[in-house]
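The methods section describes the discrete structure representation at length, but only in general terms. The central task, working out the structure tokens from the amino acid sequence alone, is never made concrete. Nothing conveys this as quickly as seeing an actual entry. For illustration, here is how one protein appears when written out as sequence plus structure tokens:
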Amino acid sequence: MSAIETSPDRAANYRPEVQALRALAVAIVVVYHFWPTVLRGGFVGVDVFFVISGFLITGGLVRESLLTGRLTLGAFWSRRIRRLLPSALIVLAATAIATALLLPRNTWIDTFRQITASALYVQNWVLASDSVDYLASENAASPVQHFWSLSVEEQFYIAIPVLMAITLLVVRSRARLRKPALVILLATITVVSLAYSAYATQKSPASAYFETTTRAWEFALGGLLVFVPVGASRFFPAVRAVVGWLGWVGILVVAVTYNNQTPFPGVAALAPVAATMAVIWAGSSPVPWAPHRIMVNRASIFVGNVSYSVYLWHWPVLLFTAALLSSTPSTPLRVALVGVTLLLAWATTALVENPVRRSRRMTIGRTFGAGALAMVLVVTPVAVSWLVLREDAARQLRLAAEAAAQQEACFGAGFRDPENDCSGVEFASLTPGPDVVREDRPATYLNGCLVLAADEGVPLCHLGDPNGITRVAIVGDSHINAMTPALDIAASQLGWKVTTYLKSACTLSTAVKPESESVLSCRAWIATVAPMIAAAKYDIVVVSHSVGGDASITREEAIAGFRGAWSPLIASGAEIVVIRDVPRMTDETNTCLEANLTRPSHCDRPIDESLPYDAMAEAARGMAHVHLIDLTDTMCWDGTCKSTVGGVVVFRDYHHISSTFSITLAPQLTRALDALRLA
């Protein structure tokens, strides 16, 4: 998202087509967020802004450097602070307050962390890290996630003038080399960043989307446009008009045709970048049918002028409204929210941004001082709140782990153990609290045992009895990974030496179809892991997976796929143990528990809505050397699947059991495994 000042009060620098570009860019971003199915590629509006930033900001720096041979970095950064920081901090402060008032506590830790990162302009790197963190990747959308693009832009504002200043120092005694040196600098950034963007988008698309290094070329290309005769008189006005139309249409076509399956940014980002450059290069052609005559009007000028604030406000306005209603806003309400966003943007621009930006009292020193003070005032309470909440969550999880380790008879899954008499037993509180249960995960998440969906590698981790005679492999995705606390205890008691083969969103089956990068990665993983397990000649292979994923695979194909993957393992001498998949709750289950701490049964879910068809369990039935363990009765009875059992919150999210509950499953799982008499 660009935050570039186009200096409308200076006619020589005013570019009406750039203002119209800003209006179009913010419009398609807003439509994309408010009506995602209408404009699936609206995310390219951010790329339009990146090019505009590269062109306008670099243009100013180039003019200064060619004229004086140096750059006044302090003056440049003070202008950026006055232009960007006041509005951003107001929105972040308002978001922090609204978070505490409107969002459930189970979102506070992550939201306050992201607000802090946004205020410090490193939000893009936080989201890049979260995108490759399987746990964080399932976090709910935060009200400041859109600040990632502002972070990228701020990092550009820091890096590019420094690089240009260094370049000018190198050629300081040769004025004629200034221009070619700057061109070489920007061209080098373009080539290197674009090449890396193409590589990273294929290698790790989730994180590549947010990284500054995959986006730098967009700014650099916009900067190179400064050296091209923009709309020069020697080009026929009609040619400029045609190029301008191609640019405008190109942006719209990309916004309509791209979607979340488009590998982005990478090479695909060249299309919106080139289209934006075409519009800027064409300028304002005098021919009657030139596009700017249609695109430039009072509405687009107004939206262009307030586009920065529109971008800041639109996402929190939408998200907090949805949180307040506990549902997606209706179409009429979303239209009204667009109006609210425009009103907030106008007020922020008129009352905050413009007065600060135009103030003659804001010297360079005062600007830096006031900016630093304002950041401290916003960041400190939010960051402290985040740290306090995080420490409290850690304390609760420690207590939960200690309670689970004591194996109290009716605690957690023990409440449903036939060997325990738990009639009349009640628990005064929930363990862990529903506000922190999303952090209640097994150690295997933290030590790299689980390979991410699109990543490669086969890390081998070990559980159970290290001196055990019976050799066991645990194979599956995040669902069996959530079961590892119970499996670790059971294996230790049974004298099993366990090796894990875990990959997120990957099912050990021959029926996996190649439809995405993550699925292709899964197929490659299976092709590597299956022979490894067979060659190792394990005594037992324990498998479990999330079921009901790929709708393109029929039930018959799914059953055959499981059996086809298990057969070579059986031929190697292994017995297969299948653990039936767990029920499904909803995204709102733990939020419901926050509001119903004394009435958790309000958050239970009907069994017929909670238990998906399990082709894996069906494949296990009737197949020689394959044994099925079904623990559903520990979570579901009397027609519902429970949100809490024995005072323990069962699910960390809607489909992963909590580590605490997993530990309490150990006694029943141990008996079930022992009863199979496999070792």
